[in-house]
Amino acid sequence: MNRILLIFFLISISFVLTAQQKTSYIGLLAGPSFPVGKFHGKELPDGGFAQSGFSASLEGAWFFKSWLGAGASAGMHLHPVDVGDLGYEKLLADPFLNDVYIRSDPYRSYTLYSGLFFHFPLVKKLFITAKAMGGIIYAQTPYQLYKADYELIGEKWFEITSAGDFEGSFLAGAGLQYELNDCIGLALNSEFTYNVMDFDFALPDGSIRTDKKVLAFVNLCAGIFIKI
Q1: By C-alpha distance, which of 28, 54, 6, 7 is closest to 186?
Q2: How many of the other CB atoms lie within 10 Å of CB of 182?
Q3: pLDDT of 87-98, one tens digit each?
């Protein structure tokens, strides 16, 4: 019996020492988010007129090898709308529109991913990281209020309500981690995601119009991580 307990104790010590060599962590990241491609585009009907915004995420990973692990992340992303360029394009598209004033909420999106995390030493306490993940994204178009001045009609107020959509999504990222001590470190990440969303809008006659919009953006995030 004592021999069995001794073997079990040695195995436990071995497991703990092995686990301590891994780089499992929980991290909180935040920073600017930059729309790219059609999401940043300034032409109707495909352009999103999105501007640089803000991104924040919480992520965690468990490393079953010193360089390879599995983890998950949850994030939120905000991108304001360039109402100046949007209004200009509206004027070009409608010959009866003399002027237009637009107030707009930002695009909002929320993500949940899981996937693989990679971790490679560069120099002492400094590591290169990478990740490849898949999951879901929920995005909302901005609520917009228009004050339009039409030829022969005059001023007219109208609104475009927000629409939302769930879609499958992927995220790829790379970055650096620096260990301040055995428990806490700093992280700098870049991330990219590309998504095609289907937003349904109710029309005055009761029908539904579906707009396909690309949501693609690059996040540059800095934050802190805690090793576990």
Answers
A1: 28
A2: 8
A3: 999 999 999 999
Q: Extract the tokens encoding 154.
A: 């005059």
Contacting residues for 72 by C-beta, under 8 A, at least 6 apart: 59, 60, 61, 112, 113, 114, 115, 133
Exposure letters 158-175 (e unless 16+ CB within 10 A, then b): eeeeebebeeebebebeb
Mean pLDDT in residue range 204-227: 92
- Smallest Cα–Cα separation from 189: which of 125, 130, 114? 130
Exposed e or buried b for every residue in 113-130, given b needs 16+ CB within 10 A? bebebbbeeeeeeebebe
Give the largest CA-CA distance in the chain: 97
What predicted TM-score, i.e. pTM, was given to this entire model?
A: 0.86
Write the burial class of residue 1 (CB in 10 Å: 0-12 exposed, 13-18 middle, 19+ buried): exposed
Show the domains of the chain with their CATH numbers. 21-227 (2.40.160.20)
The rounded distance, in Å, linking the Cα atoms of 88 and 143 is: 18
CB 66 within 8 Å of CB 119: yes
Could you give the C-alpha distances from 228 to 22, 54, 61, 117, 122, in angstroms and in order? 9, 28, 9, 15, 21
Q: What is the pLDDT of residues 30-89, one digit of tens each?
A: 999 999 999 999 999 899 999 999 999 999 999 998 899 999 999 999 999 999 999 999
d(CA 222, CA 186): 8
